[in-house]
Amino acid sequence: MNTFSRTTGISVVVANMIGTGVFTSLGFQLLGIQSFFVLMMLWLIGGLTALCGALTYAELGANLPRSGGEYNFLSRLYHPAAGFISGWVSATVGFAAPVALAAMTFGAYLSAVFPAISPRWSAVSLVVLLTLLHCRSRQTSSAVQQLFTALKVLLILLFCATIFIWGDAPQSAISFAPQTGDSTLLFSGAFAVALIYVNYAYTGWNAATYLTSELDNPQRNLPVVLFVGTGLVMMLYLLLNFTFLSAAPMAILEGKLEVGVIVADHALGETAGKAMGLVLALLLISTVSAMTMAGPRVLQVIGEDFTVFSRLSRCNSHGVPMTAIVFQGMLAVIFILSATFESVLVFSSFVLGVNTLFAVLGVFVMRWKKLNIKGAYKTFGYPFAPIIYLSVTVWTLAYVLISRPIEGGIGVAMIAVGGLLYTLSANK
């Protein structure tokens, strides 16, 4: 197998997106929003924003066909320095931090079922195991990814069906129709802050662009992979949050991390709830696997372009960037052992938002520079799709800086370090 199939590409997108965010963020959102309609609108708006971003990335990837995602786009469209900083962000934070978050959530859900198991060390063990698996070959990576992604989608559907069929009667007092005051809440600071968590949950819709060079017929398949993967995830997210809100009172979910376990406990009882907690833990294996598969490709292309990082481009006999995979795994383990869940989430959300902001803006630069390949895909709904994405992203980034200045400041510092490293490496 010399390339990844369309199915593998969709699996990577779905698995990268469905992970920590959707199973943890509702509890934080409920601290500022108590409207069923507004909470569902959060997930709908977040999904439509991600779709707008995916449609734009499809044009960028089809016309600038090389692995590396934002590193490739920004290098070609702006300047090698912009690409390097973007690649630095993607490689150090963009994948290692979400890998750590997904593994930490896996550990939290697993320890809720088996209290004797350390959540931190089970998270570390998962990262190490999947790092070793993805170091072998593309055949192994594809098989692991397709298996766990298919399992993930089936288990989500099983979870929702089990809650509605065998769970206690849904809450009778809830209404998902708009209520008085909801229109004001939609444009409030609380909504913007909650959208930070939702946007993080949708992070990963761009994952296939990190594998572009290894994707079969990328000009034809990349747009399909991004659109189908993102659209499928949006529908699953709406279904999951409808299930969460229907099955358990808001009061017991507020501020809680393991929302899925709490919902299952409330609707099915403690024993069945723990079983569903184990199911939800299994879902997160696919997420860690997908990010372990996609992220190191950014490090690989940086190593190909900058001699000071040339070791990261080294591949094994199967063409797999083993050194980069191991390096990312080590970074993820460091995050797991040294940081809290929420601080990593907000910090990485901010940095990733800045990264994709400039990439989506690049579609206007690409057309201005006339870099489009004849016959290649063009963004559906241009220029409105990229403008919608840019508007929502700027809004949420501004509220991160206002509401969480420490995490935002660390993100800015991380970007500055990337600029410094580029200056040093360019002089080598």
TrEMBL record:
Key words of the record: Membrane, Transmembrane, Transmembrane helix
Topology versus the membrane: Multi-pass membrane protein
The organism's place on the tree of life at top rank: Bacteria
GO molecular function terms attached to this record: L-amino acid transmembrane transporter activity
Signal peptide bounds: none
Main localization category: membrane
GO cellular component terms listed in the entry, alphabetical order: membrane
Family matches, as InterPro entries: AA/rel_permease1, AminoAcid_Transporter
Segments passing through the bilayer: 12-31, 37-60, 81-106, 112-135, 147-165, 185-202, 222-240, 275-299, 320-341, 347-368, 380-402, 408-425
Subcellular location, record wording: Membrane
Name by which UniProt lists this protein: Amino acid permease
